[in-house]
Design goal:
heterodimer, A: about 110 residues, mainly alpha, two-stranded antiparallel sheet, 5 helices, elongated, B: alpha+beta, 14-stranded mixed β-sheet, 29 helices, 26 strands, about 15% strand
Chain lengths: ~110, ~900
């Protein structure tokens, strides 16, 4: 869906889900985020964003992987859809373009 | 078994979250819980579990949001439409509820304020005040002093390991403060022990606790005091002269400024000086102890009687006890003699709480009643819904939502109203409320939730009875099972209304009585120069002469304690030749003309003779000992009041004349002298107190106030002239001028305000109750429109219909009267019991209550009849 932009946090969650591919669910994404960004994240925020992303069509989910640590409850595992992957790629391309458009002098000057 | 989080939280999660999410979220939280249990401990893990759960109270996670949301949306729409359609009844409901909630908020604010006194000190749970109680069973003497006397207890911190320090507050009488040319008289300017800062919390704005009393003759001022003395200039380092207890002026330097203590303390402070010498730590002082950590006051209290009585033996029936009261209890629970400021009363807190509960109950019952009585007009709607498939829980949810919406609107309106009127309430009460927002919000929220739950449940229960076809037919409220219930509801409304009216009337009567009762003396047109030290009163005669020269001043007199201030000496009276007479009485010292100035009635005998004034001029008396010796030497004659006469066992004033008596207190014993007269009782204290036996004599050493009888002249000019005269005689001492009627009225201020508040609240409650009553009757009649129409068709005329209706409702009113009158009687008797002088409960209150209710009944009946009078009964029947 061209024209649907996603926020910074959503992008981070999407990226984390991509990184974790087979094991992308709320808790693993949470710890990935906290490790990489150093920010404290609430579990409900992660769930909220994942639900939103799913509504937007960037991820899809299925239930699986119940463990005893989870009291026997299954996890909601997420994986990126084609749309999701293309959005990420577009974002990366956009960033890349703008980065290379920055004149060298900006980095050299104070 | 591995530790797991509490089960109810799972239930909660399942209720909130929709299916897809619920399991995953549960799993997450369980995993987190086990991890946290090991790293942070089980309790923290559970707590965090709860917090995390609450996070999911967000829209994104809600259950099958689609269809439920739709339903709630439509419900809300219907509810609002219903409310708009039935504006009148809705308005009554909301109005009643809002008023009740606003008043409850005001009461919470008041109660929270009152209960917060002195809790702001960090160590308040370890600070106790020592008080002194002396009892004598033989004379019935029982006096509890708020302050301690002597120096025997200065060593308590050494003798008791539980007590870490003891602080004395001395110089509690007004002190003169002189700064260059200006003179001030300060109340609450205490001489204290340095340790005071380690007991009580005082916030230092300038300077600090350690250095404040580093050098002798330092003084610490409060912010407002400093402002009064020095304006905006820096007060630190400035010199002022402050009077000591014996009148001598000493020079002090300001070393620190502290913030004004907040209004919720029993100990207001304007200024501190340090007790300069250890030997000065003697005499009367308000004394506070700090308990050591982990110590209990019980162990101190246990050992105290032995410690106290070491080396003393008291005669039989006499007891001296020391009591400790936690500092935060003083305001509400202490009623000793000579409190620093008049304390509040726990009874009032309870009364106001009861008022709040009562009001809320009325509003809730009103609410539920009104809702229920409307049901007939809704029964078709209900029936239709049932037919369309609504289940009972859904219907209940609907009515619940409706009640909730109404309460919600009321609560919001109430909050807005409260925020606006808070200012006025504070001005009325005379102080700013100390707001503990959390407590306040908690109790208010709790109230609203309770009220909503109760009324909503009641409505929901009642309105969803019966099956679909019954409801459709519109019979839900006319069958035999529910008619009595409806009657009960109306009956309850009757009772509430009558109770309120009768109680309010009785309260008002007591109020008027208190304000207008003859006090036994004239307080009008008398000014008072108050609180003069012995230094000033030594020159009383010259002052008197000088003041008489001022036009507008009719007479000058003096007195030891002005009416409106309790005396409570409780000295011993003994009568020559009658050893069986052993009563306690207060002593009042008056000038020869005082009784005349105050217009006190003499029952028998005559006034004190002039010859008593023939003594040598008052010598300079510096110490208590010198005063005592002087006073005991003088010739005496006495007057007593009627209460004293009765206490001594005499029936008529004439019997008393000529008997010889003496009065003593502690180790001061006045000479025996004849009783020359008996005067009528007058109210030295408020009407709440019984009049004590009083002994009157002439002892100028103990005069403290000068009474000035004036003609109704220009007060301003008079004031100036008196200032001038004063300055001539006492150039460096401030004058304090008051009006006797105002002093007395101030006594009643707190009382007055409480009474006014109660009157206002009961007025509003009456309004609510009557609104509800009218609404209910109107609607009850409406539901019977068809019934009445049928009766008319079958031949009754309006007269018979009215007769029928009237019979039913009047009978109901009658039963309610039978219940409400005894209830009101009981309530009012207990309340009036607080007053030593009070009105009797007469029938007026009850008669008016019944009358009011009857008027409302007739009004609603006639209104309804009028509406339907000219209508064709067939039309009424046709409205299907």
């Amino acid at each position: 869906m061209k024209g649907t932009s996603i926020g910074e946090f959503e992008e981070l969650v999407l990226l984390s889900a991509a990184i974790l591919y087979d094991d992308a669910y709320s808790l693993s994404i949470l710890s990935e985020l906290e490790t990489r960004t150093g920010r404290k994240v609430l579990i409900s925020s992660v769930h909220k964003v994942l639900v939103r992303l799913e509504k937007k069509g960037f991820v899809s989910s299925h239930m699986g992987g119940a463990t005893s640590e989870r009291g026997g409850r299954a996890k909601k595992l997420y994986q990126l859809t084609l749309d999701g992957k293309s959005t990420l790629a577009q974002l990366k391309a956009l960033r890349q373009d703008m980065w290379s458009a920055i004149p060298q002098i900006v980095w050299e000057r104070e | 078994m591995k530790a797991s989080p509490p089960n109810w939280m799972f239930w909660f999660l399942r209720k909130i979250c929709h299916e897809d999410l619920a399991e995953a979220v549960e799993g997450d939280l369980i995993a987190l819980f086990s991890e946290r249990s090991t790293t942070k401990g089980r309790r923290l893990a559970s707590f965090l579990f709860l917090l995390d759960t609450l996070q999911f109270l967000q829209p994104f996670s809600f259950k099958t949001s689609h269809h439920y949301r739709m339903i709630y949306k439509t419900y809300l729409l219907i509810i609002l439409r219903n409310m708009a359609r039935k504006k009148f009844i809705t308005a009554i409901n909301i109005l009643g509820m809002t008023l009740a909630i606003v008043i409850s908020m005001a009461i919470y604010a008041y109660v929270i304020h009152e209960m917060s006194y002195d809790r702001y000190h960090t160590k308040s749970d370890r600070i106790y005040r020592m008080t002194y109680r002396y009892e004598n069973d033989k004379t019935g003497y029982d006096i509890h002093w708020a302050r301690m006397n002597g120096k025997w207890f200065n060593n308590l911190p050494e003798e008791f390991h539980e007590i870490s320090s003891l602080v004395r507050f001395q110089s509690f009488r007004e002190r003169d403060v002189i700064i260059e040319e200006e003179k001030f008289r300060e109340k609450h300017a205490y001489a204290i022990d340095k340790d005071v800062f380690s007991l009580f919390d005082y916030v230092f704005i300038k300077g600090n606790a350690q250095s404040a009393f580093a050098s002798p003759y330092s003084t610490v001022l409060t912010e407002s005091t400093a402002k009064r003395y020095f304006g905006d200039l820096d007060p630190i380092g400035k010199q002022l002269r402050i009077s000591a207890d014996n009148g001598d002026k000493e020079s002090y330097m300001v070393t620190a400024i502290i913030q004004d203590p907040p209004p919720n303390t029993h100990l207001p402070v304007t200024l501190f000086t340090e007790i300069q010498k250890p030997e000065d730590r003697d005499g009367w002082a308000y004394s506070y102890i700090l308990l050591a950590q982990y110590s209990g006051i019980e162990s101190v209290e246990e050992r105290m009687p032995d410690y106290l009585n070491e080396g003393h033996t008291y005669p039989d029936g006499e007891r001296l006890t020391v009591h400790f009261m936690p500092v935060s209890d003083i305001h509400l629970h202490s009623h000793a003699s000579r409190e620093i400021v008049p304390n509040g009363d726990y009874t009032y807190v309870l009364v106001f709480c009861a008022v709040a509960i009562f009001l809320l109950t009325i509003a809730t019952v009103n609410f539920a009643n009104l809702n229920t009585i409307q049901s007939l007009s809704r029964s078709k709607e209900i029936g239709l819904r049932k037919v369309m498939g609504a289940q009972t829980p859904q219907l209940k949810m609907y009515f619940f939502l409706e009640a909730f919406t109404l309460s919600g609107i009321s609560a919001i309106a109430a909050t807005i109203l409260f925020i606006f009127t808070c200012k006025y309430l504070e001005i009325f009460m005379g102080y700013a409320f100390i707001f503990n927002w959390q407590m306040f919000a908690f109790w208010t929220g709790f109230t609203v939730v309770c009220v909503t739950l109760v009324s909503a449940t009641m409505s929901a229960q009642l309105l969803t009875k019966g099956n679909a076809s019954e409801s459709l037919r519109g019979n839900a409220f006319s069958d035999n099972k529910t008619i009595p219930f409806r009657r009960v509801l109306i009956g309850i409304q009757f009772i509430m209304a009558m109770l309120l009216v009768s109680c309010t009337i009785i309260i008002q009567r007591q109020f008027q009585f208190t304000l207008n009762k003859d006090l036994g003396f004239d307080k009008e047109q008398i000014m008072v120069l108050t609180n003069n030290s012995l230094n000033i009163m030594r020159s009383y005669e010259s002052l008197s002469q000088r003041l008489r020269q001022i036009p507008g001043i009719m007479e000058i007199s003096a007195i030891s304690e002005i009416p409106s201030v309790p005396i409570k000496d409780m000295g011993q009276v003994s009568v020559a030749g009658k050893p069986e007479i052993n009563i306690s009485a207060d002593l009042l010292n008056v000038d020869i003309n005082t009784l005349e100035v105050m217009n006190v009635k003499v029952l028998a005998g005559e006034n004190l003779p002039f010859r008593l004034k023939n003594r040598q001029e008052l010598p300079e008396l510096k110490s208590q000992k010198e005063i005592k010796e002087y006073v005991m030497l003088q010739e005496r004659a006495y007057l007593i009041n009627k209460s004293a006469m009765k206490a001594m066992g005499w029936q008529t004033p004439e019997e008393v004349l000529g008997e010889r008596m003496s009065w003593s207190i502690g180790n001061i014993e006045l000479k025996k002298g004849p009783i020359l007269g008996v005067i009528e009782d007058f109210h030295q204290e408020s009407l709440k107190e019984k009049i004590d036996p009083l002994v009157i004599t002439y002892e100028p050493v103990w005069f403290r106030h000068v009474l000035v009888k004036t003609s109704a002249a220009d007060k301003f000019q008079l004031h100036n002239a008196m200032e001038q005269a004063w300055d001539e005689l006492f150039p460096d001492l401030p004058m304090q001028l008051g009006y006797l009627d105002q002093e007395y009225d101030d006594l009643y201020n707190a009382e007055k305000k409480q009474l006014q508040l109660i009157s206002a609240f009961t007025g509003i409650a009456i309004f609510i109750a009557f609104l509800g009553l009218y609404g209910m009757i109107a609607f009850a009649l409406k539901t019977r429109t068809k019934e009445l129409a049928i009766r008319r068709i079958l031949g009754s005329n309006w007269g018979q219909v009215i007769h029928l209706l009237g019979k039913e409702y009047f009978a109901l009113a009658g039963i309610s009267t039978l219940i409400s009158i005894p209830l009101a009687w009981w309530m009012m008797s207990s309340w009036l019991g607080n007053y030593a002088y009070r009105v009797e409960i007469s029938g007026i209150g009850f008669a008016l209550a019944v009358l009011a209710v009857i008027i409302i009944l007739i009004a609603s009946l006639s209104f309804h009849v009028h509406k339907h009078r000219n209508m064709n009964p067939a039309e009424d029947l046709r409205s299907e």
